[in-house]
Amino acid sequence: MNRLFNLLLLIIITLLSISGFSQSTISGNVVDSNGNSLEGVSIALNPSKYKGYTNVNGFFEIQNILDGNYSISISYMGLKPINESIKVLGKNLSLSFVLQENLLNLQTVVVTGTFDPRTQLESTTAISILRQKDIKQTYPQGTAGLLQNVPGTFTDASAGEVYTRVYTRGISASAEDDMGWYYVSLQEDGLPVSLIQHSYYSPDLFHRVDLTTKKLEAIRGGSAAITSLNAPGGIYNFISHDVSNKFGGELQLSAGAQGGNNALYRVDTNIGGPLGNNWYFNAGGHYRKDDGARDNEFTFSDGGQFKFNVIKNTNKGYFKLYGKLLDDKTNRYTGVAATNWDNPKAAFGQDFNSTSLLMPSFNGSIPDGRNLNMSNSFNPAQGVHAKDLAFGLDFNHDLGNRLTLKNNFKFSAKNANWQTSISNAFVSLNNPLAYFISGADFPVGQVVFKDARSGNEVARLDNSGILSGNPAQYLTAGSLPNDAIMGTSAWYKDMSADEWMNEFTLQKKWDNHDFSTGFVAAHSSTSLFTQGSFAYVTYEPNPRMLQVTLENPGQPVLSLSDENGLSNYGGLFYVNANAKVNQIAAFANDHWKVSDKIHLDLGLRFENVAHNGSKDRFAPAGSPGGIDGDITTAYDKSVNAPTGETDDFKYNYTYLSYSAGINYKFNDNAALFSRFSKGNKAPELNYYFNNFSNVPINQKGEIQKILQAELGIKLDSERASFTGTAFWSQLKNIGIANFEFDGDDNSIFYTPIQFNTSETIGFEWESIYKPFDYLAFKFNGVIQNPKALEWNIYDAAGSVDTSDDSIIDYSGNILPFNPKLMFNLSTEFEKDKISAFLKWQYMGNRQGNVANGFELAAYSIFNLGTGYKISNHLSANILVTNLFNSEGLANFFGANSFGANANGATPDFVSANPDASFVVFPVLRRRALLSLNYSF
Questions:
Q1: Could you count the other beta carbons within 10 Å of the beta carbon of residue 748?
Q2: Which one of 13, 122, 695, 894 is most buried, counting C-beta atoms within 10 A?
Q3: Which of 579, 574, 687 is nearest to 641 (CA)?
Q4: Interior/surface letters 533-549, b for 16+ CB within 10 angstroms, e for the rest
Q5: 3-state class of 85 per DSSP?
Q6: In this structure, are residues 37 and 58 in contact, taking their beta carbons and an 8 Å threshold?
Q7: Region 612-628: what's the mean pLDDT?
């Protein structure tokens, strides 16, 4: 027995000894191309579960590794990954790695616009990535301002953070100023920010960029037709920070100057790290107070957001709980007057750089047309108050047998309240509109204008002759600036939406196929109330509110406005509507690995969009004395209120989209891809809200059809990278209706819809050349030929009367607001503790309307930035945007008259009115920002 015991003991000791000698440790360090140690680099051995991360000194160590052959993967955001084969044979290994910059992120795995994540080089889409470093080089002026750095993306952020336009490849016709994201999907972490759009309710209202964003992935056209909800024009997906294996974060304090005395103060933060037992968290947000880029007497923006996520990694995947609370006020500018069609110059004492023409702050009260016993407060300083409470659950689970389940669910409660100006047109004192728009029956005679704040008389005139074509006559020494008032409306909108959306995906992998299928279900319950009242305002760069009365001798004084200058309460606009939107989509996609070099993508998407809602009919309410019963107060005589009748709508839009792509990978650094897609765009709710005023909604809208073809190349090397994509796009069934004003009865209406077709051919590119580790040159842009292939415009001849209406054919003209050339050219320097960049943004000529009657000239914007690393944790940066104060014009609103639109400025109109003034939107003036960043 003793011998047997000794033998067993010897065997055990021998086995333990062998086991001990068959385990090893791998250690080493990782640096970048400048020799800087990299913290948080992921080190993984495959096939195994051995994994580690570098510490603050770039050092890593993985212990107790069994003998065998492994592939070691070294990966770090923004740098090229390394994959090498190693052999472990009973001894410790010491390794060193140098990670080169991933110049255009071609080796980075992308998750947007694809069902199975893969590197950008291997994808069959035109995709661009902006990292946090790129985001920090952009002045914090809103989402659209950032997206102008994405090649081929047209953005118009001249109005500020909201009321912006974003589109690509000429897919733009319905992307109007008041809902400029019509064809594209603005997303956060893979789901849309908002399910719906309608006038003045676009997703940019509920999105802000700050340090919580890890990167942006942008898809232009292509696979967006089968991977997004009703957004075939592109996807802009802002991806948040997620797992961090070490507690840390960043705090950024910023202060800016805009023009003379306009300031910006902002604080951003983001922190994250492990919570233990494979739990991780990330949280952050921002708060800012901004006087605005133009001169107005109130704070332009005030507010911020908070975002968080909590992630649990499991042996089979992960699940993530995330949320956002946005509470933010901002505003938007309304254009500047200009003259000289060939070389526009600011008119009427205004300035392209500083003039805002927004009404000043005051506390008004306007009867609520929905319930005349109640009123709505109105103060232009409130601007646009957006609130968004959102939370969601995202999980990924490996079911075994190479089958994976993914699900992403989000709920949000949104509200947007507008209290601001709409329009700022010139209205001459010789124009009867200046008086009759008050709602008074016959406001002719002696009209008195007083400063609404001080009560002092500004001007007194006799307008008796205007109805016979004679000018108004001043009766005292006082006069109004430019002998005019501003044609503007006190624009009150209250909009809300409760939404949920869920995307479910099941993915199965075989040797040569990655097959994905699933469905998306989404619901939005929304309400809209719009009320427009006239406001008496001086027409000058710093407008004043005017209290207006009619004071004819021997007659009672008739108030054309209230004490704040508000007039024609609720008489210009009235919309009260609600709707439920349900979207269901089912999709299937196969990624087929035909060979090591050839990959095919084949995808289908069946989608159904259901609209169910109602809209009030309305009419002026009240007695001859108005809401207050006083016949001497004319301003409350025309309040629009519901009649009790409603116009209901209930329509379904069903369509099938498809997309097919192919990628030929020459080697690890070069690939060719091609894709053809047929997408669809169902109408948004503005179709019902805008186009049917007191008439039955007796027909559904048209589904727009989008065809796109593209051929691209992707090239990567140690010192240079390049991607280029030739594309063709065609957009059909474009419904066009113009906003018109009838001077005969002071009513506003939309013209009958015309359906049109556009076509664009072009080439997009993105490139970077890095001759030295510390110096880089970047160049991206698009050259294109946008055409209005078949295009008709309804001409209402300035009145509701249809007897003099006509249809004008503009087929073959250049598509408006699409530059033939647009690019970004920049140089970046980073060495030791110093960094700097200089960027040139060029916007080519654009037609201001489909009539091609007015052309917006090309302009250039130069941005400059420099930074200094004070210590390992503290850095300072200076950013100057629009360095040379360019006065480029970004947008055109047509003739400078109340109710005019861009399409009215035809070649004949311009020729017949060479001295007429018109409304343009200049780019925002020079702004400088100083930021201190503390990272830990």
A1: 16
A2: 894
A3: 574
A4: bbbbbbbbbbbbbbbbb
A5: strand
A6: yes
A7: 90
- Euclidean distance between CA atoms 574 and 730, whole angstroms: 36
Instruction: Write down the residue that tokens 């400025």 correspond to.
Output: 905
Q: State the Cα angle at 728 between 723 and 733, rounded to 5°.
A: 140
Q: What is the DSSP pairing of strand 93-99 with strand 23-32? A: parallel
In this structure, the number of other CB atoms found within 10 A of the CB of residue 594 comes to 11
Compute the mean pLDDT over every residue in the chain, rounded to the nearest whole number. 91
Q: Which residues pair with 481 in a beta bridge?
A: none
C-alpha angle 391-392-395 in degrees, rounded to nearest 5 = 155
Q: Provide the 8-state DSSP code for 515.
A: E
Among 577, 575, 572, 571, residue whose Cα is nearest residue 627: 571
Q: How far apart are CA 201 and CA 193, in angstroms?
A: 12
**Of the candidates 762, 765, 783, 672, which has an alpha carbon nearest to the alpha carbon of residue 720?**
765
Residues 6+ apart with CB under 8 A from 632: 556, 557, 558, 559
| 232-284 per-position pLDDT tens digit | 999 999 999 998 888 999 999 999 999 878 999 999 999 999 998 999 999 99
State the Cα–Cα distance between residues 922 and 925, nearest whole angstrom.
Answer: 8
- The DSSP letter of residue 160 is -
Complete domains list, the chain, with CATH: 24-99 (2.60.40.10), 283-935 (2.40.170.20)
CA angle 672, 675, 681 (to 5 degrees): 150
Number of alpha carbons in the 13 Å side-chain half-sphere of residue 358: 28
Smallest CA-to-CA distance from 31 within 61, 63, 54, 52 is with: 54
* Length of the chain measured in residues: 936
Q: How far apart are CA 699 and CA 493, in angstroms?
A: 26
- pLDDT tens by residue, 26-76: 888 888 876 778 877 888 888 776 778 888 778 888 888 888 888 888 877
Q: Are 497 and 525 in contact (CB under 8 A)?
A: yes
Cα dist from 248 to 198, 304, 870, 936, whole Å: 41, 22, 19, 5
Cα–Cα separations (whole angstroms), residue 358 to 149, 222, 428, 508, 927: 29, 40, 19, 57, 20
Say if CB 337 and CB 346 are below 8 A apart. yes
Cis ω on the peptide bond leading into residue 140 (within 30° of 0)? Answer: no
Q: Where are the alpha helices (DSSP H) in 563-718?
A: 686-691
B/e letters for 760-799, b = 16+ CB within 10 Å, e = fewer, are bbbbbbbbbbbeeeeebebbbbbbbebbbbbbbbbbbebb
Q: Are 67 and 86 in contact (CB under 8 A)?
A: no
Collapse the DSSP code of 381 into the 3-class scheme (helix H, G, I; strand E, B; otherwise coil) and give the result. Answer: helix
Quick count: other Cβ atoms within 10 Å of Cβ 554?
A: 4
The residues, any chain, with a CB within 8 Å of residue 831's CB and separated by 6 or more, are 34, 774
What letter would DSSP give residue 21? H
Nearest to residue 767, comparing CAs of 237, 60, 104? 104
Q: What confidence category does residue 603 fall into, taking pLDDT thresholds of 50, 70 and 90?
A: very high
Phi first, then psi: give them for residue 120, nearest 5 degrees: -60, -35
What is the rounded radius of gyration, in angstroms, for the C-alpha atoms of the chain?
Answer: 31
99 in Cβ contact with 41 (< 8 Å): yes
Instruction: Give the whole-angstrom CA distance, residue 17 versus residue 9.
Output: 12
Cα angle value 528/534/537 (rounded, 5°): 130
pTM of the model: 0.91
